[in-house]
Specification:
The protein is an alpha/beta fold and 302 residues long. It folds into two domains: 3-188, Response regulator (Rossmann fold); 191-300, OB fold (Dihydrolipoamide Acetyltransferase, E2P), CATH 2.40.50.1020. Helix content is 34%, strand content 26%. The strands form four sheets. The chain has a five-stranded parallel beta sheet, with helices on both faces. It has a five-stranded antiparallel beta sheet with strand order 10-9-8-12-11. The chain has a three-stranded antiparallel beta sheet with strand order 13-14-15, with no helix packed on it. Helix 1 (12-25) links the parallel strand 1 and strand 2. It is globular. The model is unreliable at 146-168 and 186-190 (pLDDT under 50).
Length: 302
């Protein structure tokens, strides 16, 4: 059975191209198209599609504002239903569809999509990548427990998880809400830009971008930059990771936290595994855990 889909993009050529590719692939019924965010909200409410191919950058109500509108509306419906003592399903909430972003957005946003396991297509569209996105949506809709659940692979269990503090019991909404907060400039500005590293008897204040990777050895967190090595006062890699830009730093392995910008080379290893050759003086090679191999391939389109 084909999945129902909406295409929302302010550029007609982009809509036509994506529609052509989806028709060529098959298994997708494009029920409607829209050219702006307001149409997107109305069409989602009217058609309740399985998936929305949503442009990020649109005049007026952009793709992120569309998501915010849907999430806030559904929460208001849920709150109203709770006050009236009736099931949420009796309200006017609209099921949150799977979202595949179509974007020519900056690197930060693409990494934010990766961190939150939200699928995306970069413009200009590539047929193989569109096929991959469609296959993922098909698989998750067909898999028990994934109907109405987030675009998230079970193999990505090491990735940052959405906490209940997001205020939604709906896993898709929780994940998208986290994405919106990550991309909010005000939230990004709250993240400390500097990191304290102890090198011998000195406490150095460095930019996060200078860190190549961090690793733990016998309970000591070692931080490696392109210029020097030092130690962190953090007790665990998890604690250090909380202080770092979550769109830049990736837990490639249980014992390593790497800066994506400082990966020099991806080295194929035995049994379809990989190592990362970093940009430090030693060109350290870091293993990628089996659970993170798929994330690596998605991150760099391997």
């Amino acid at each position: 059975m084909p999945i129902s889909a909406l295409i929302i993009d302010d550029e007609k050529l982009a809509r036509d191209e994506l529609k052509y590719l989806l028709d060529s692939i098959g298994g997708v019924d494009v029920v409607a198209q829209g050219s702006n965010g307001i149409e997107a909200v109305n069409l989602i409410e009217e058609h309740r599609p399985d998936v929305v191919f949503l442009d990020v950058q649109m005049p007026g109500l952009d793709g992120f504002a569309v998501l915010k509108n849907l999430i806030e509306r559904n929460r208001a419906c849920a709150a109203s239903a709770a006050l009236k003592g009736r099931p949420e399903s009796d309200g006017e909430a609209v099921p949150t569809p799977h979202i595949v972003f179509a974007t020519a957005y900056d690197q930060y946003a693409v990494r934010a999509f990766n961190v939150n396991a939200v699928d995306y297509l970069l413009k200009p569209f590539d047929q193989a990548r569109v096929q991959e996105a469609v296959d993922r949506v098909h698989a998750r809709l067909a898999s028990p427990g994934f109907g109405g659940s987030p675009i998230l692979d079970s193999s990505q269990s090491e990735s940052p998880q959405v906490s209940s503090s997001s205020g939604s019991s709906n896993p898709i909404e929780s994940q998208l809400d986290t994405l919106l907060r990550m991309l909010n400039p005000a939230v990004r500005a709250q993240q400390p830009a500097k990191l304290i590293v102890q090198a011998q008897s000195r406490l150095l204040l460095i930019d996060q971008s200078e860190v190549c990777f961090a690793t733990i050895d016998e309970g000591v967190i070692r931080i490696v930059t392109r210029a020097f090595e030092g130690q962190s006062k953090c007790r665990t890699l998890e604690e250090l990771q909380d202080q770092l830009d979550s769109a830049r730093f990736w837990r490639a392995h249980r014992g390593f936290l790497v800066n994506i910008d400082q990966i020099r080379e991806v080295v194929p290893w035995f049994k379809s595994s990989f190592q990362l050759r970093m940009n430090d003086k030693q060109q350290t090679e870091i293993p990628v855990s089996r659970n993170q191999t798929k994330r690596l391939k998605e991150l760099f389109n391997l």
